[in-house]
Structures are given as C-alpha cells and as structure tokens.
Amino acid sequence: MKTALDAATGKTVIRVNPKWFRPADVGSLLGDPTKAKTVLGWDPQKTSYTELVRIMAEHDRALARQEAMQRGR
Questions:
Q1: Phi-psi region of 24 (alpha: psi -120 to 50; beta: other; left: phi over 0)
Q2: Taking every annotated instance into account, which residue ranges of this chain make up the domain NAD(P)-binding (predicted)?
Q3: DSSP-derived secondary structure letter, 27
C-alpha cells in the first residue's frame, strides 16, 4: 500500500493500492498540433483558448450536419 503523509501531523492522508496503478503512465505527454493547424486553421500564437473552443465547436457542428444529410435527415 502506498501512502502520503501530512507533513505537519504525520497522519496518513492518502492510501493507494498499487494494483490500481496504470503501468503505461508516462511522466509527460506531448501532443502534435498539426491537425488543429491544418484542419481548423489554428495558430497558437494568435488564437486564444476561447477562440479555439469556438472553432472546434463550429467544426463539429458542420460535421454533424454533413452526417445528418448523408443519412437523409
């Protein structure tokens, strides 16, 4: 059992069973923004987070409309 202690009191504040650890976890994850740049026109130097969310939502709505039309709705 892995534990974490409160430094001030020495009491256990977290207890974790190692069987629940995920062996494939990595220390850091890096993404490739190429698709966001090419498909959505995202520019990390000019696009705010809020604007990126808006662009992504518009893109998803357009895809949903296309799929609905292809199914004859």
A1: alpha
A2: 5-56
A3: S
Q: Please name every residue paired with 12 in a beta bridge, in sequence order, or none if there are none.
A: 5
Helical ranges in the chain per DSSP H: 34-40, 49-70
Task: Examine the pLDDT at 65 and tell me if it is beyond 90.
Answer: yes
10 confidence band (pLDDT: 50, 70, 90):
very high
pTM > 0.85: no
Q: Which amino acid appears at position 62 of this protein?
A: A
**Alpha carbon distance 53, 57 (integer Å):** 6
**How far does CA 68 lie from the centroid of its chain?**
27
Is there a contact between 51 and 36 (Cβ–Cβ < 8 Å)?
Answer: no
**How far separated are the first and last CA of the chain, in Å rounded?**
55
